[in-house]
Amino acid sequence: MTPFLDIQNIKKTYGATVAVQDVTLGIGRGEFVTFLGPSGSGKSTTLYVIAGFLDPTEGDVRIQGQSILSVPSHKRNIGMVFQRYTLFPHLTVAENVAFPLRVRRRPNDEIERKVAEMVRLARLETVRDRLPSQLSGGQQQRVALARALVYDPPVLLMDEPLSALDKKLREEIQYEIRRIHQETGVTILYVTHDQEEALRLSDRIAVFSQGRIDQIGTSAELYQNPATRFVAGFVGNSDFLSCRIDRVEGHSARIVLPDGACVSGVRSHGTVRAGSEGTLMLRPERVRIRNAASNTTPSENGAAGLSVTIRDITFLGDNTHFAVETDWKQPMAIRVPFGRAGAEGLAVGDRARVDWVAEDAHVFAESANG
Amino acid sequence: MLLDFDRLGGLKWVLVGIGILVSAFLLLPILFTVALSFGSSQWLLFPPPGWTLRWYEELWADPRWITSTLTSLQCAVLVTLLATGLGLLASFGLVRGRFAGRETVRALFLMPMIMPVIVVAVALYAFFLRIGLGGTLIGFVLAHTVIALPLAITSISNALERFDKAIEDAAILCGASPWEARLRVTIPAIRDGLFGAAVFSFLTSWDEVVIAIFMASPTLQTLPVHIWGTLRQDLTPVVAAASSLLLLFTLAVMLLAAWFRRRST
What we know:
heterodimer, A: alpha+beta, Rossmann fold, 2 domains, 5-stranded mixed β-barrel, B: mainly alpha, MetI-like fold, cell membrane (chain B), transmembrane (chain B), transmembrane helix (chain B)
């Protein structure tokens, strides 16, 4: 089955500079997909190609099997919410929302009905007759959202719409966006550099890095099974340790840490080759820490570990944060949930032992980007 | 603030005194002219021995004053339309355009503002004589547009630069064609700049005298030219009356502009 919105092999170059390449992605009707990546990674460029503000050097964009590249922006019938505030300054909230219907020459009673519906959906009843300059940033973006949805576009593009808002307001509007997505069933393509926002909103996330998509998947897939070191570092917190790859069998590798410790059963990703340098990745909450002196707990099946020195301990309520250093001076962060046994009595400066279940460890080739 | 008016102590009153003196120096001659226009002395005596409306009656009875006023109005309105329209188009080009030589073009557009008016006047005079535009209304309008355009462009360009292009893009994605987006969104959004351009253009033409003297013919004169001509022939209080009316009109335009500006914000 062909996807509802089909992005095929998009490439955009400016002279010798490649802004995006090999961007291929199929999006189902009603799906909420986020482009996540640092600035300059090509996510906004891809969005602007879909909006029609940029022509791709190569590739195609299809909606329901029809290419939209030859259709000018104003006839694409796509909704968009911009990063900056883009309300029409001389029109009231209601007139801003009505604008797309007015340029489509819809009858007045239909305009009135649709605007009322959108004003209610975006909870703008109390401000409907105000001018944009009399609204807060959050209200302005909610009006922009209502304006982009009033003509029932098949696809809604959102280009970092909340980046100008403070954290609390951002969370509030993220919730609103989710609710509106569920109520309208519109297909949403959302761009952000904020991983928390991506995790909170999306059905699927496409992680962009240096003009390419590194990985596409659900939040859980990206977190549990990152395809590249970049994805591992960008989605969730990670500890990275340099290592040497000793042996690779399928997707399982044996690695050697700088102190000579051997760890087998590590999950390998990408083009990991035996004998090359690699990076070991661990999630801070999957690593356990205990007193080196106690030495009572036998390693569980497949568990691996190393000795560290504790540099800092921060109690954060539901968990405690340990900043430690390996014997070869690489920093690591470890998060211990409140109440988990083993970490009692540890103090700054102590020697400690950290370990993890082998399958929680991932190894990436050193040369992989990031 | 480095200089706080309230903390200046005794110096404060010195400043107030200087302020009053400067204002008086600038404003008194104008008040003086207005007073003379109502004075009964034919020799512009001050203080006037009596008060009269006679000079205004004479002004009203002389068709040359009426025609020159109408010429001025006609010219100023045409200049306003032309300079604002051209200024809008030029501003779009200068602000949005990406072409080689853009800064040079901008400098050329603004040139008449820094050139001495007399130089512009002589040059235009020589040129217009040659192509048969001297002494015509079109000649007046074109010459005044040349000096009004830099003001119009400055005012509109500033407004256009403050206007975020993304708003126009948003209008286009909402379904408006690029032209419709400019007409329905961009132009209304920069209306303050357009209005400023119109007011400046109007006033530039309305009280311009140097170029107008060169452009004028015995049969076609603007009000400032006629005032100037009358003043050189005989020093009659009618000139004071005409000046007072000119002043009143200019004041009215400025107040209207201020009122519009306040209403739009």
